[in-house]
Amino acid sequence: MMEQKNFIPKEDGLDNSLSVLREGYLYITNRAIGFQSDIFETRLLGERAICIRGEEAAKLIYDSEKFKRNGAAPKRVLKTLFGEDGVQTLDGEAHRHRKAMFMSVMSGEALQSMRDITRKQWELAVRRWEHKEEITIYEEAKELLCRTACEWAGVPLAEEEVKEKTEWLGSMIEATAALGFKHIKGRNARSKIEKWVQELVESVRTGAMEPPENTALYSFSWHRDLNGELLDKKIVAVEIINILRPIVAVSIYICFTALAVIQQPEERLKLQSADEQQLKNFVQEVRRFYPFFPFVPARAVKDFTWNGYQFNEGVLTILDLYGTNHHPDLWEQPELFRPDRFNDWNGSPFNFIPQGGGDHDTGHRCAGEWITLEIMKESIDFLANKMSYQVPVQDVSFSFHDMPSLPHSHIVIRNVRALV
């Protein structure tokens, strides 16, 4: 019996890239609602593209027999966010081998180390903030996490370098979908930080520097490819930055966490016990509820039919991360902030995908997701329990067309005092 063929709804227009910039995180969701379909066809950056959302769609795009990442991400994203020839661009055995390099530094001991370093950096930061009339959470969180990332990864960071390196990493993150000056700034920042890290890799390989063996700087510097050769130092630099940059990007989540702590007093009360499960539930709901990374692109490796829909080899396919995390078929009342929903979550790697879906060890799901959880749990404990502060009147709204999105005020607080 032949499988029924289904028609993919098609958006009008010669190219709808500007609509993506105008609507941002809601671009796919808006059309999915309009078409009453979790799949539709459009044209983006001059080519045909299929947009999908939902749990089954996530399972599809993370099927390595049907999709690849190489050649999917726009060049402008590689030039700012991911870097060229990094793990996100690999497929097959090359990807699995490179991913194993990342997973080697994600041991339980390493995650506890991240938690401890984060706690220390929060304690130091709060002491600094006590001497200021007011601080901006997002800006301070970037610096705090730059310090944290470098210490955890074994990357030396002198005090006089902190603001410069924070600025570089922040510019790369903020240039993700930017045009004009901000995009150029992000590209320049990547060039500078790649040069800096390449010099560190060279120092490790010549013996001039000896970082701890369990750190990313050491492990990546000595990692060998499938042919037994040391990775080119340029690629090592890209991958070390793929550790540092995502950690600093958690500052976006911390900013939204602060917003949730302020706006959700009943949920904040549940955090007073500092119970690990309550902290984790709050973290997960922040990651589900607020916008972070909007889409994941891939290309079909062959012609195939899925649920009656035809996919052709090479077709650009885009998975809606935000839309999947808010899909009404997957989440009850998805537009409400309800951390307790994670008490009953089934743990699927395909219906909750704020940092990508699929398998951590061999797939394209973010290797740093566990690190994110540890950083955020510690950060929530400080914001809810370990410091007092006042919140002045400010614009805490955020726009879905900004990518990445942030509360417009970046969350300003005053008169910070440590409580422990």
Explain this structure to me?
It is a single chain. The protein has one domain (17-418): Cytochrome p450. Helix content is 48%, strand content 11%. The termini are far apart. It is globular and about 65 Å long. The chain has helices at residues 17-23, 27-35, 55-61, 75-82, 92-103, 108-129, 137-153, 162-174, 181-206, 216-221, 233-263, 265-269, 276-289, 321-325, 369-386, and strands at 39-44, 47-52, 67-68, 134-136, 295-300, 304-306, 309-311, 316-320, 387-390, 412-418. The strands form 3 sheets. It has a 5-stranded mixed sheet, with helices on both faces. It has a 3-stranded antiparallel sheet with strand order 4-10-9. α4 packs across α9 and α6 (108-129) packs across α7 (137-153). With 420 residues, it is α+β, with helices and mostly antiparallel strands.
Percent of residues in helices: 40-55%
Q: Secondary-structure element sequence? A: HHEEHEHHHEHHHHHHHEEEEHHEE
- Examine the coordinates and then state which fold CATH places here, giving the name of the CATH topology: Cytochrome p450
Q: For the residues shown, what is the average pLDDT?
A: 91
Structural class by helix and strand composition: alpha+beta
Uncertain segments of ≥5 residues (pLDDT<50)?
Answer: none
User: What is the CATH homology-level superfamily?
Assistant: Cytochrome P450
Compute the number of helices: 15
